[in-house]
Amino acid sequence: MHPTLPGPLGDCLRDWEEVQQDFQSIQETHRLYRLKLEELTKLQNNCTSSITRQKKKLQELALVLKKCKPSLPVGAGEAAKELENQIKERQGLFFDMEAYLPKKNGLYLNLVLGNVNVTLLSKQAKVTDAAFNFLLVWYYCTLTIRESILINNGSRIKGWWVFHHYVSTFLSGVMLTWPDGLMYQKFRNQFLSFSMYQSFVQFLQYYYQSGCLYRLRALGERHTMDLTVEGFQSWMWRGLTFLLPFLFFGQFWQLFNALTLFSLARDPECKEWQVLMCGLPFLLLFLGNFFTTLRVVHQKFHCQRHGSKND
């Protein structure tokens, strides 16, 4: 203890003593956390290995039961059926237990994310945000499958828009594995707001594209498998000039998301790998969307000028 001193120095010393006491408490809490974490890891490993052994024994027991069933006496059939039902029930219980235990990734996740544990271990993590990100993964996966089928059937979808959906699938998958914490909460509202705006812009794009394609198909100038508009007609400018500001605003929002995530990644409190791995796809999406849109607008403007000269 320091002798009592008057003035600001005395106040600083008293504050320092309080900080020291808090620090000792933090050290003790961190020590307990590390012990509990080691205990948790051991419990996870023990539980996983025990369940694996039990499942193997249940499979062997079910196989023996299936083989001996035909030779059982008449009165033993009910007992065998009851045992079979209990084995199935136990297998279902093990499935529920494994949902909260770490497990190895499948081939696709290993290729995309590597050997990273993506299991959501708490009930709190398996709520609205996880469901939303899972729906995004499902949505973009279905888009990539649908576009591949359409391309095989003669659709002329631009390559970037197809690749864009693969990048979005990866981004949504990483967002799905991002655990709740300080970094996630800092980005959460911005991401949800962006997602709502993106849905609005996608509706506008759908309205514009479907209107153009309907008119062009009626004129016999487009294939039935086409999803986007190639070439240009002068009447398209009215809808396109309305749509472009919304598109460019959304694209610069993607850049803003990337810059925000890169800033969070430099935060000393940032420990999650998902922060940087979400920032990179957002930057890639901005670059691809922005320059592809500029190229398309330039081509259509050139087509309009060429058509005007011919007239």
Q: What's the short version?
A:
This protein has helices at 7-68, 77-98, 107-113, 128-152, 159-177, 182-218, 237-265, 274-310. The protein is mostly helical and 311 residues long.
SSE layout and pairing:
Layout: H1 7-68, H2 77-98, H3 107-113, H4 128-152, H5 159-177, H6 182-218, H7 237-265, H8 274-310
Helix pairs in contact: 1-2, 4-5, 5-8, 6-7, 7-8
Biggest sheet, open or closed, and with what strands and sense? Answer: none
Instruction: Give the % helix.
Output: over 70%
Mean pLDDT: 78
* Structural class based on helices, strands and sheet pairing: mainly alpha
- Number of distinct beta strands: 0
Radius of gyration: 30 Å
Strand content: under 5%
Order of helix and strand elements from N to C terminus: HHHHHHHH
Give the CA-CA distance, first to last residue: 93 Å
Shape: flat
- H/I helix tally: 8
Q: State the low-pLDDT regions, or none.
A: 221-237
Please give a structural write-up.
This protein is mostly helical and 311 residues long. Helices cover 77% and strands 0% of the residues. The chain is built from eight helices and no strands. It has helices at 7-68, 77-98, 107-113, 128-152, 159-177, 182-218, 237-265, 274-310. Mean pLDDT is 78; it is low at 221-237.
